[in-house]
Amino acid sequence: MSRVEIIVWPCLVGVLLLALWEIAVRMLDVPSFVLPPPSAIAVALVKDGPSLLLSLIETLKLTIAAFAASCVSGLLLAILFTRDRRIEAALRPWAVVLQVTPIVAIAPMVVIWVGIDHVERAVFVLATIVGFFPILANASFGLRDVDPGLSDLFRLYRANRWQRLFRLELPAALPAILAGARISAGLALIGTVVAEFSAGSGEATGLAWRIAESGARLEIARLFAALLLLAFAGIGLNFLLAWVEKYVRSQRHLDARSG
Amino acid sequence: MLSLRDVALTYRNGVRALDGVSLDVADGAFVALLGPSGCGKSTLLRLIAGLEKPSRGSVSGAENTSVGFVFQDPTLMPWADALTNARLALDLAHMPRLEADARARDALHAVGLRGFETALPAELSGGMRMRVSLARALAPEPRLLLLDEPFAALDEITRFKLNDDLRTIWMQRKCTVLFVTHSVFESAYLATRVAVMTARPGRIASQRDVDLPASRSVATRTEPAYAALARALSGDLEQATAQ
Ligand SMILES: Nc1ncnc2c1ncn2[C@@H]1O[C@H](COP(=O)(O)OP(=O)(O)OP(=O)(O)O)[C@@H](O)[C@H]1O
Ligand SMILES: [Mg+2]
């Protein structure tokens, strides 16, 4: 299958589905507060696009901040874990507790602690909690997944712990860390929106609040337009990180042989 | 002098790799280790390098010398180019970059890899990767060189050339070399002494001094004395394997 076809076929399916949707909604006379036709969504997208985009930017700002914080904290914790089995044994259960706790459940607490006058701080903290786990898991796997022969060599040449970390463990772990980062970025976006929903009140400016507002006002076309923007943001973020991953791989020619 | 006294090594999974190895290697000697597959040759080198601890017996004389090790596999950093790989020991010893680069480059040239400095391991052939590994061991000019079948993956022409280069390096630097090989011809050509090991658990079955002229060349390979030595070593090996 050619490059063009890879793009053309899914688009064709998309157009077909949209057409069916439009026809079905019109023929069955579905009220637009239940399911608006694609044309109405397109109109909403044009009309409310600028204001929705501003909200999206607010959400993305928090997503990126939370993602960065997840990466840094996840990586640092993974490095700490892999220094000493006892540290890991002592801390890992608590990291898991954090992972399995639904953020909606801890949102009110976090809002009280850090978000009374700054909801965005609470959202940032909550999204960071959601995003950091894949980094932690992948990085601590990658940092341990070192070629034993290379590890012996570093021992033979009496490498100190910093040399071992920066010249052996981190480069060896980089592909795993990037794979974790890709998952984490998606979760950070979801985390931000969910946290906006659960922490946000009237002063929240992110996209989640626009969605909630549209739902409350039965402006379903606007709601769909907001969802569409969110989906595009997610796809864009994923593509960006997939590209970084691919670039790093090509730098190492890992896929020159394994395809 | 490197000295092993009645060394035994049992791996954690219960495999007895070595039992009762005694071996002396004089400073500046070139000792070849010959033995059947799985008899513990690699294990013996790892023991000497300090990467394994003996279960019994003692290993002395290698603690405070600089050691270069060529593993049986190339064991290169896949993310680093040939020059960076060859420079590893120098980088870890905090040698200034300029000097380290020059020495690593010389080592790569010595193993016939001029022009491949920026190639990544994945872009090199198996034999070329092995030579990067050899360059990495040579670059810091160690006093003791441990070589585990370094030339097994090479074609004959390259192998003969590297045999000669290795002997030249050994004579110039006056270092000690321990060289594992499966080839009686290679061991006879290179070494001052050949030690033959028994099947697992390995120990030294016999040792034979090589009474060939110090300067060796293509002509050596056709000399009667060389052929006789190779035949004698084949006999030793056969006997050791049967034990
Ligand atoms: N890390 C290990 N753990 C357990 N057993 C091992 C380990 N390494 C080697 N062995 C076992 O020890 C024995 C000797 O292995 P070694 O690699 O030293 O043999 P060798 O003489 O180098 O063989 P070859 O010529 O095939 O390279 C083998 O039976 C092997 O199965
Ligand atoms: Mg071996």
UniProtKB/TrEMBL annotation, chain A:
Domain of life assignment: Bacteria
Name of the gene encoding the protein in the UniProt record: tauC
Signal sequence annotation: none
GO cellular component, one term: plasma membrane
Similarity comment text for this entry: Belongs to the binding-protein-dependent transport system permease family.
Entries under InterPro entries matching the protein: MetI-like (IPR000515), MetI-like_sf (IPR035906)
Domain ABC transmembrane type-1, residue spans: 56-241
Chief site of localization: membrane
Subcellular localization(s) per the UniProt record: Cell membrane
PANTHER family per UniProt: ABC TRANSPORTER PERMEASE PROTEIN, ALKANE SULFONATE ABC TRANSPORTER-RELATED, MEMBRANE SUBUNIT
Name of the protein: ABC transporter permease
NAD listed as a keyword: no
Keyword Cell membrane: yes
One GO term (biological process): transmembrane transport
UniProt KW keywords: Cell membrane, Membrane, Transmembrane, Transmembrane helix, Transport
Listed Pfam families: BPD_transp_1
Membrane topology: Multi-pass membrane protein
UniProtKB/TrEMBL annotation, chain B:
GO molecular function: ATP binding; ATP hydrolysis activity
InterPro entries in the record: AAA+_ATPase, ABC_transporter-like_ATP-bd, ABC_transporter-like_CS, ABC_transporter_ATP-bind, P-loop_NTPase
Pfam family, one: ABC_tran
Alphabetized SMART domains for the sequence: AAA (SM00382)
Keywords: ATP-binding, Nucleotide-binding, Transport
UniProt feature coiled coil, ranges: none
Entry-linked Gene3D superfamilies: P-loop containing nucleotide triphosphate hydrolases
Residue ranges of domain ABC transporter in the record: 2-224
Family as reported in the entry's similarity comment: Belongs to the ABC transporter superfamily.
Name of the protein in question: Nitrate/sulfonate/bicarbonate ABC transporter ATP-binding protein
